[in-house]
Structure formats: C-alpha cells, structure tokens
Amino acid sequence: MVPVGLSAQRFTLAAMSLIVELSDEVLARLQAAAKARGVSVAELATETLSHVPAVDGDFASLVTSTITEHREILDSLAAT
Known about the structure:
- The protein is an all-alpha fold and 80 residues long.
- It has a domain at 29-79.
- The protein has helices at 24-37, 41-49, 57-69, 71-79.
C-alpha cells in the first residue's frame, strides 16, 4: 500500500484515466444505450460523466479533513 499524503494546499484537477468494473447486466444496458445513440460505450461514458458537477472547495476540504481525522481506520480497512 502506498501512503497518501494530504496537505492544506489547494489542488488542481487534471485529465485522468478511470477503470470501472460493471456487471454483465449493466454493461449490456450501457452497450445498448450507446448503440441507440450511435456512439461508443467510451463516448457515452465520457458524455455522461461530463454532466457530473465539479466538486467545490468546501466539499473537498470536508473530505480531506475527514480522511485526515480517520486515517488510521481507513488504512486498516484498506489493508483488509
């Protein structure tokens, strides 16, 4: 496990890769929806995710402080 360091500094978001594991049923529905729109599954996923609102700074700070406060518990859970 690689330790994650958190700081009070502001951060920036950049393009990233994301791997999503889907059940066969969900994948079949996604493929059908993409085919109906005439796009690839990746294009449909990209379009769908582009509508997710950005995380605001207050929310990011709350997540960061929660992770910091409960780091030991989270590390224990990650090790199981």
